[in-house]
Amino acid sequence: MWSRPTDPPPPLDPLRDHEAVRALHSEWARSNRGTPAASPWQRVTGKARRALTLGRSNREFLGSLIRAIDAVARRCDELADRLAVVEGLTEDVAGTFGEDITALRADVHQLQTELGGAGDRG
Q1: Cα–Cα distance, 78 to 12 (Å, whole number)
Q2: What is the number of alpha carbons within 13 Å of residue 83 lying toward its C-beta?
Q3: What's the whole-model pTM score?
Q4: Would you call 35 exposed, middle or buried from its count of C-beta atoms within 10 A (0-12, 13-18, 19+)?
Q5: Which DSSP letter does residue 39 get?
């Protein structure tokens, strides 16, 4: 009857728990941490120095960002695949119900015709 399996796929894991996203947050927190005892000028120059140089920590941060983006892209692909499955199932259900409704309407019409003809005789 169904052209596709009706069992839903397993639920997706939360994307926030993905290791790339956690690493991104850790790197971001680490790179933006200021020294509390530093003067405002030291904090400003430290942030400017970090922003202007592409050192090891920035490369690690960019790597984490790229991995997080890849994780989001993979999740979007999974969602698109699942949506295609749901659309196929919906199409099957609508087709089946449409056929059933058409058959029921034909049966009702036939019964109405038979009962209408019997009522004329009596």
Answers
A1: 9
A2: 6
A3: 0.49
A4: exposed
A5: -
Q: Which residues contact 92 (CB under 8 A, 6 or more apart)?
A: 2, 3, 4
**pLDDT averaged over the chain?**
77
Provide the CB-side half-sphere exposure for 95 (13 A, CA): 9
**Residue 122 binned pLDDT confidence (cut-offs 50, 70, 90):** very low
Whole-angstrom distance, CA of residue 118 vs CA of residue 105: 20
- Count H helices, E strands: the chain? 3, 0
* Three-state DSSP class for residue 13: coil
Contacts of 26 (CB under 8 A, 6+ apart): 64
Question: The tokens 């609508």 sit on which residue?
Answer: 94
Q: Which two tokens stand for residue 112?
A: 């109405």
Q: Using the structure block, give the residue that is written with the tokens 């993979």.
A: 74
The C-alpha angle with vertex 74 and arms to 72 and 78, in degrees rounded to 5, equals 115
